């Protein structure tokens, strides 16, 4: 499993990418999670101001 981004609510602010300890998130039009790097820690979920990412 990996964190999932809701593209309709993501505003590409980058907070999740900054919070991720594994560099698993890049910001394109919306946040994109690299499932091979994600360890489901939940840090991005807590960091998102838009509740756009779930674990
Ligand atoms: S759950 Fe953790 S490892 Fe996975 S993308 Fe979010 S912050 Fe990164
Ligand atoms: S913190 Fe939330 S709104 Fe910001 S880029 Fe990540 S998923 Fe999108």
Give the topology, please:
Blueprint: E1 4-5, H1 15-19, E2 25-27, E3 31-33, H2 43-47, E4 53-54
Antiparallel strand pairs: 1-4, 2-3
Bound molecules: iron/sulfur cluster (2 copies).
Task: List its traits.
55 residues, alpha+beta, Alpha-Beta Plaits, two-stranded antiparallel ribbon, 4 strands, globular, binds iron/sulfur cluster
Walkthrough of the structure:
There is one protein chain. The chain has 55 residues and is of the alpha+beta class. The protein has a single domain, classed as 2-Layer Sandwich (Alpha-Beta Plaits). It is built from 2 helices and 4 strands. A two-stranded antiparallel sheet has the order 1-4. A two-stranded antiparallel ribbon has the order 2-3. The longest helix is centred in the N-terminal third of the chain and has 5 residues. It starts with a strand and ends with a strand. It binds iron/sulfur cluster (SF4) (2 copies). The site of one iron/sulfur cluster has 16 residues, from helix 1.
């Amino acid at each position: 499993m990996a964190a999932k981004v809701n593209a309709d609510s993501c505003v590409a602010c980058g907070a999740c990418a900054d919070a991720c300890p594994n560099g698993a998130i890049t910001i394109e039009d919306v946040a994109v999670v690299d499932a091979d790097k994600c360890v489901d820690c939940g840090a991005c979920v807590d960091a998102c101001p838009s509740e756009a990412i779930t674990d």
